[in-house]
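User: Could you check the structure of this?
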Amino acid sequence: MNFRSILRFLLNRYTLATLIFLVLIIFLDRDSLLNRLKLHRELKGVEQEKQFLEDEIAKDKQSIHLLSTDSVEQERYAREVHRMKKDSEDIYLIVRKKKQ
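Assistant: Sure, the predicted structure tokens are below.
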């Protein structure tokens, strides 16, 4: 193929209309292919975040159920998280410094 035949093919009105249509769909349209790819990536991120939060909710429900039914677990939680103690006890906290 020589240059003349390639130029004639590109200047054909059907080829030109098809090229303009493809450029419009891929780049310029509101619902362009690039926009759809960006939204698809964003959707995947939101779905992963949703799954993470659903897992956290399930863990919290299990903890709430355990704390509401088991008195030993309630005492352990109160001592570890809220640093509560009995009147006859002394508690010593050992704080380790972070290495820099």
